[in-house]
Amino acid sequence: MIGFFLLVNAFSSVAQEDNDMKGMIEIIKLFRALDDEMSSPNYLEPLLISDTILSNTRGTNFEETALTIISNLYSWVGEYQKSLELYSKTFEVAALTDNQPIDLNGFIAVDAVQEIIELAGQYDVIFINDVGHRPEKSVFVTMLLEDLMNQGYTKIVFDEIDSTKGMINLSKIPTENLSLKALAPNYANLVRTSLSLGYEIVLYPYISITNYRNRDSIFALEIFDQQNIDMAKMIVFYNKDIINASEKTLAYWLELLTGKAVLNIDQIKYSEEHDQIFESPFYQKAVELNKSKLPFILKNKDDYFQDDTNEGFDFYVFHPRTSYTSGRASWETDYVLGNKKYLINLPKEIYQNIPEGALIQVFYKQEFDSGIPIDQILYKGYEDTNKPIVVPEGRFILRVEGMERSNLLQFEFTYDLENGLAILK
Q1: Which stretch of DSSP H or E encloses residue 364?
Q2: CB neighbours of 292 closer than 8 A, spacing ≥ 6?
Q3: pLDDT tens digits along 94-111
Q4: Is the dihedral of CA 271, 274, 278, 283 positive or negative?
Q5: Any residues with CB less than 8 A from the CB of 388 and at least 6 apart, and which?
Q6: Distances (CA, A) of 422 to 326, 328, 384
Q7: Average pLDDT, the chain
Q8: What pLDDT sits at residue 150?
Q9: For residue 344, what are the β-bridge partners?
Q10: Whole-angstrom distance, CA of residue 130 vs CA of residue 157
Q11: Residue 126 CB partners (closer than 8 Å, separation 6+)
Q12: Which residues are 125's β-sheet partners?
């Protein structure tokens, strides 16, 4: 895993004291556990050691890295509030006070999907950013895919899916060894939906460690070449720090090569946090203007909302606050166009022999052998017996995994609106 070796190299330069060396060792343990997940994902093993890692990295130069990675892991198993809580500890934001005037007079909240689709025809490339612990960002991009395909967009770029994953455009199934990010069910579903709609995933060159500092310019050249092959329009869904056009990052180099502006969208900056004290005052004011359950953009009669940071984004997508039904996030069923998903309660008897700390996973039947779950929830105990799974209509396999990679329970089932959930004997 390239990230692992880069981190070890970078960390060794800052681990000058015994305390920092201890922190570096804990991060190496965590990345080794993550590396194992790429070949046989269980998701529980990294979480099993997470408390120890957080304890041993506290107060070191590696505390923020540990919090970020482990918050990602919790988001993968449906523990979104826990994920936000951990991530909020990695930064500090001033609380909203009376001496921070926020003026949004004249702005209205407009539907983000509709606005992006209306603008898409003017561009050849759309950049949308991503951050690992917020799976609703992947779900939002999934909402855009079909309409963007109708606008002529036929290729898509994903962070970490490079030329070493050459079979993905043939198999059309996100598998367990595709990328670390793709182990997240909602990210994998974005990949799956892209392929099913007919998008081609652009497999950019594998960047060696020695050339990693030049990755953005190299990658921009590959996108430029791909566009010239068939004049394809392209979506780039990438790390939050890579697409900023005001810096010499990927968007900057691509605009330089093509001489054309890209549509550069930020959907990370203005988001909810675990505690409102960490939220942007602009976000807090903006959600008061929004009357929809869906992501929105602030717009007045002249332009889109911009703050004074000059970050190079054309506009910001605001995500509404999440509400929860029996522990499931509202965006899991609200952020849907086309393939609607439903909250499905499992029969109570299923929980009788499941220990605390088990993982309930749901797979498409045809992907069970090597695919990524379409949904999974961490069963923490009795309080989770009413926690539903989230699935579309279809045929699935449910598996319950234990800490030691033990298969505690497995069965096939179908779900449709007419007949509900039917377990197949």
Answers
A1: strand 358-364
A2: 109, 111, 320
A3: 444 444 567 788 999 999
A4: positive
A5: 325, 326, 328, 343, 344, 345, 346
A6: 21, 22, 21
A7: 83
A8: 95
A9: 389
A10: 12
A11: 116, 120, 148, 153, 234, 235, 236, 262, 263, 265
A12: 234
Phi/psi at 140 (nearest 5 deg)? Answer: -60, -45
User: d(Cα 372, Cα 174) in Å, to the nearest integer?
Assistant: 6
What are the structural domains, with CATH classification, of the chain?
A: 2-88 (no CATH), 108-316 (3.40.50), 340-424 (2.60.40)
State how far the Cα of 287 lies from the Cα of 402, in Å rounded to an integer: 40
Quick one: which H or E segment has residue 228?
helix 215-230
Q: Kindly give the interhelix angle for 136-150 and 185-197, rounded to the nearest 10 degrees.
A: 10
Output the CA–CA distances (angstroms, integers) from residue 324 to 150, 276, 332, in the order listed.
Answer: 33, 17, 10
Portion of the chain with pLDDT greater than 90, in percent? 41
Of residues 264, 271, 197, 266, the one with CA closest to residue 235: 264
Q: What is the pLDDT of residues 359-381, one digit of tens each?
A: 999 999 999 988 899 999 999 88
Please give the structure tokens belonging to residue 44.
């529980």
What's the pTM value of the predicted model, to 2 decimals? 0.88
3-class DSSP state for residue 391? strand
CA 395 to the chain's CA centroid: 25
Each residue's pLDDT tens digit, 165-182: 778 888 898 887 788 888
Nearest of 409, 411, 405 to residue 43 by alpha carbon: 405
Contact (CB, 8 A) for 113 and 295: yes
Report how far apart, in Å, the C-alpha atoms of 110 and of each of 114, 299, 322 are. Answer: 8, 7, 18
Average pLDDT over residues 213-217: 73
Please give the pLDDT value at position 253.
Answer: 83
